[in-house]
# Entry
Amino acid sequence: MTLPNSSAGTLLVIDHEVDRLQALRTYLEQHHYRVCTEREDRAAIELIPTMQPDLVLLGMNLPGKDCREVCRAIKSTRAPAFLPVVLLADRSLDEQTLEAEQDADGLLVKPVREADALMQVGALLRIKRQVDALWSKNQALVSELEKRNTELEKAVRESREASLLKDSIVKNVSHELKTPLVQVKAAVALMAEDARAGVPSTIALSDMATAATAKLESVVQNITQLAATFDVKLEAFRLADALSVAVRQTGRQWLSSGAVDRIKASVDDVPLLMGDRGGVAQVLQQLIDNAIKFSPNGGDVEITGRPEANGIRIAVSDHGIGIAGDQLERIFQAFYQVDSSSTRPFGGAGVGLAIVKLLLDKMGTAIDVQSTPGVGSTFSFLLPAAPPEKPPESSQVAAVPSTESGNQPAQSGTLG
Ligand code: ADP
# Structure
């Protein structure tokens, strides 16, 4: 079968005696139609998806075939797009022909008058173009509606999540504030009782009040920080200095538990880093606090600073409960906790890692986490080494904003 070039449209002629339609074919080609021919309906129907004809001229003389069925089969190949079918009847309008026409879009009686065929084909193709345009407009509307629907579903889901989040914020924050408040209240009441009875208070009571106050301070600070904009100052600093600040703060919160003795670090050999020392101290404190908290069976918390191709990777590792793979991205969302049940064994407002992420974003780096449930977790981030030609002067380091003085270098090995 040859496919002549044409711009008016592609016509597929299916007729058992297609050779007898040669004159019609030539006539239509002269009027810029591309005309393809097939003797057999099955072969023709298989061709339609690739050929994509604009109109089919279907001979009613296909041996042993029900013309209405063939017509329906042809139309269904392009459905829901419109493929007009014109019947080529061998005899004039008898009952059978009229019945077959119900499924078709036009009828020509053989011998076909070429001008009639041209007129009918032209009219049907004009209708087809209008139907196609409407159809594609409709398609665009349907996909726009589907898009809107997806957006709507997303908005509903988000609003449901936001409402759940709000509940968990209120629950978490009030729990996190209430627990240390009750401890401070109890410690102060007991100390007052002791004073009234003329008995010296035990150091344990004041330790309890101090640790609870530090906890309160940290919760309030964390929540305030989440809404605050961080001003980071990138300059050279020693990792040991930032770590020292972090460990001192951790020590205040985990006062009586001896948890600080579990922190093992060897960072004196780490080259000078570029970053915000106060911010890095805060990040380390948050990661160390979590490492201690989520290792209920104890185990060391290791802090390392190892060179990589693009800087120094600072890592905080624990041997705690670990985190399941599907939770690893979510834990950095504010107020998200793997276990947010009211019976969860670990405290926390669920904002620590969100702050870590914010701070590191500001410093142009990212937090990474590797974790295996039941084995432990390693949180790490990369900072560039400070350029060697500009070593920091001691006064510059002291000028870095920080909540702590933080000038004592951390020791290798156990910190505390
Ligand atoms: P919080 O510790 O107050 O719950 P975070 O934002 O610091 O909030 O951490 C979010 C969640 O990530 C925690 O509730 C916990 O489920 C998980 N997580 C964080 N650090 C660790 C860790 N070292 N080991 C296991 N789970 C952790």
